[in-house]
Structure formats: structure tokens, C-alpha cells
UniProtKB/TrEMBL annotation:
InterPro entries per the UniProt record, alphabetical: AAE_transporter, KhtT, KhtT-like_N, RCK_C, RCK_C_sf
Species whose genome carries this gene: Paractinoplanes deccanensis
Pfam families: KhtT_N, TrkA_C
Cross-referenced PANTHER family: K(+)_H(+) ANTIPORTER SUBUNIT KHTT (PTHR30445:SF8)
Protein name in the entry: Potassium transporter TrkA
Signal peptide: none
SUPFAM superfamilies (alphabetical): TrkA C-terminal domain-like
Domain RCK C-terminal, chain residue ranges per copy: 79-163
Source organism superkingdom: Bacteria
Amino acid sequence: MIVRVRVEQTPLPGIGVRHDLVTSSGRTVGVVSHRNGRRDLVLYDVDDPDACLASIPLTDDEAEALADVLGASLMLGQLAGLRQQASGLLTEQIGLGAGSPFVGRRLGDTRARTRTGASIVAVMRDREVIVSPGPSFVFEPNDVVVAVGTRDGLDGVSAILAGDDDG
């Protein structure tokens, strides 16, 4: 099933640009990106789409955090949907403690997929989600690894990252 979402872009002369999204419930939300770099999150009146009910100014950090939260929840929701479709396939978030032997080392050094059959599909770091990290990706303390696989495979990835697997 393909779900299409329409985002309309409207130039605002002398101000910047506005991007509006109409949700499936009929609500319109938007982001006004000002020429000076400021961003406002806006919510429109359902009865009058030209009337703004609320405008929330966002700092760069706040805009980035909001994008990360939405991106992370979308990715995890998609993984959960995949899990429901594939019997025996699970997703798990695995915290990488400061004592892990892989802190400061590359993802490829784990050989996790080869050793366990499970795949590391993302890493969450602070407010950032790194999707599909490559073998040269370097782990940092407190990274949260998102892995997909069987129960045994995920247990294996946890053991590898913790240094409890001699493989």
C-alpha cells in the first residue's frame, strides 16, 4: 500500500517560504522558514485554513530535535510494522555502555550480521538517528543500536556489543 502525503510549498515574499501538510484528519500544520533562518511551527484553524491558531518559534536545536523525534518514531514504527508482518523477526534497542569493547571501533569490527544473522539497521546518538550505518561507522559511548533479527540473533548482537562473546 502506498500512502501519499502532499506538502505544499508557498513562497512568502520578503519573509521566506511556508511548507504546509494536510493530515489525514483534515488538520493543516506548517513550517514557515524565514530568510533570516528562523523557523515557526504553525497550526491552522480546521474551519478556516488561512487562519493560524498557533505559531511556535523554534530555535535551530529545537527544529533539529523535533525532526529527529519524528524521524526516530517513524523509523521505529516502520520496524514494528515489519516485525508484525514477518513471524519470528524482532527489533530491539541495545544500549552501548562506556565499557563496551566496541566504543571507538567500527561497526564492521563486530561482524554482527555474519556471526548472528541479525542486522544493525540504525544507531540513535543523542537526538540524531543514523539510519543504515555502514561498516566504517564508529560507535560512541551511550549509542543505542537498533537491530533486527531473530531472538537468538538479537541476543547474539547484545552479547557481542557487551563483550560477552568471544567470536
